[in-house]
Amino acid sequence: METPTRWQLVQLSLDGCSFDQLVEQCALFLHNPLVIIDNTYRIIAHSHCITAPDEVWTNAVQRGYVTLEFAATLNNWAALKDKNSRYERMTVSQITPLRRRFYHISFRGELLGYLNITEGSTPFEEVEEECCHLVTQLLAREMYAQYHFGDARRKSNNEEVLLQLVAGNFVNRAHFLGQVQRSTLNTSCTWRVLCCDLENFLSYNAGEDDFKHELLELFPYGTIVIVKRILVILCEGRYCDPSDTRLFARLNRYLKAKGLQFGISDPFDDLFHLRRYRDQAMQACRLRRYLLQPEHLYTFFEEVKTYALLSRIPRGERQLFCSGPVLALWQQDRLEHTEYLLTLRIYLQTNRSIKATAAFLHVHRNTINYRIGKIRELFGPEFDALNTANQILLSCQLLQLADSD
């Protein structure tokens, strides 16, 4: 087939050719096979006139989507992208001997997907960067038009709806309902959101989608997307019931094997407010480090609500809400390099157990007895009163946040 010039390619796009026709002509223009991936990691088009002599490439286009593991790698774009390229691109040589080059397909600041060029008969060094950029621009224009002005009757997949919810792209509830009704999401059940930061998760597995299958075994019928390195799972509440000890034992073993941690939101029944619960799951991930001894690699938002509330107090004002004696202990520790405040917090969080406090701090029980005796002198007879204990613990937790700023 004849190779189009760049101007013929532009004219073809302006004349309103189909998206598949445009992809074919772009492949001929670049002399290499192309795959177009949308922002839910579905393969929405690929070249037929030029294909890759590569089993992984063939299996992927037949399957119709990119593995969740490799999607996580694409989400680490900033760390993995080519450093000396004029345009945003990532070159990957770890999948098969054939190199692959990925480009962002963006329009008006919105990431629509990725262009995947596989090195075929023409080495990448012989393909002009400007030509690749032109192709991404033409594809972006067509994809944007299809997404925003395409057939309103088109079925929406659940991942598309979840992405739009996470991004806050629905103008109002009517807009949301119009989209969700064209998906298979159940709007009459209880949900939870699970989140995980995949910053250190790197995989070039483009073959079988093991990661996604494993997650769906744990959370059947879940909807899974990755947004800016964050894995987001929308799961029906019945499949994420905290009382299901067998499920969460399996989950903990799985997370340990993968080196991951999950945050889990409160249950909710209005998908339109999903971002609020996505934020809860993210806070559970972020604030779990303040828990005394996290028993598991998953954390429910319920466990960190106190820290979530206290973290809303501006950093510069946190000391203003602390008990005077607690603040004095904190200042003494900073000056004398002692651990009275830490001892006090652990003591209260372990239900005033000398043994548990000593074990946590790896010191002798007599040391804890001595420290608590000194602390009692500071607080006086009110030290054992419930109201005082609550005030002291909240002050300790506020200063714990302050120390980590």
Characterization of the model:
With 405 residues, this protein is an alpha+beta fold. It folds into three domains: 6-149, GAF domain (Beta-Lactamase, 2-Layer Sandwich), CATH 3.30.450; 158-310, 2-Layer Sandwich (Alpha-Beta Plaits); 315-404. The chain has helices at 6-14, 19-30, 55-63, 68-74, 77-80, 129-149, 158-167, 173-180, 210-218, 245-258, 274-287, 305-310, 324-336, 340-349, 354-361, 365-379, 386-404; strands at 34-38, 43-46, 89-92, 100-107, 110-118, 191-197, 223-227, 230-236, 262-264, 298-300. It is elongated. The model has no long low-confidence stretch (mean pLDDT 91).
Short synopsis of the structure:
With 405 residues, the chain is an alpha+beta fold.
Can you tell me the residue ranges where pLDDT is under 50 for at least 5 consecutive residues? none
Based on secondary structure, the structural category is alpha+beta
Strand order of the largest sheet: 2-1-5-4-3
Largest sheet data:
5 strands, antiparallel
Shape: elongated
> In angstroms, what separates the terminal alpha carbons?
62 Å
Query: How many strand segments?
Result: 10
How many domains? The number is 3
The CATH level-2 architecture of the largest domain is identified as 2-Layer Sandwich
* CATH level 3 topology of the largest domain: Alpha-Beta Plaits
Number of helices: 17
Helix content: 40-55%
Instruction: Give the DSSP E fraction (strand runs of 2 or more residues).
Output: 5-15%
What order do the SSEs take from the amino end to the carboxyl end, as H and E?
A: HHEEHHHEEEHHHEHEEHEHEHHHHHH
Radius of gyration: 27 Å
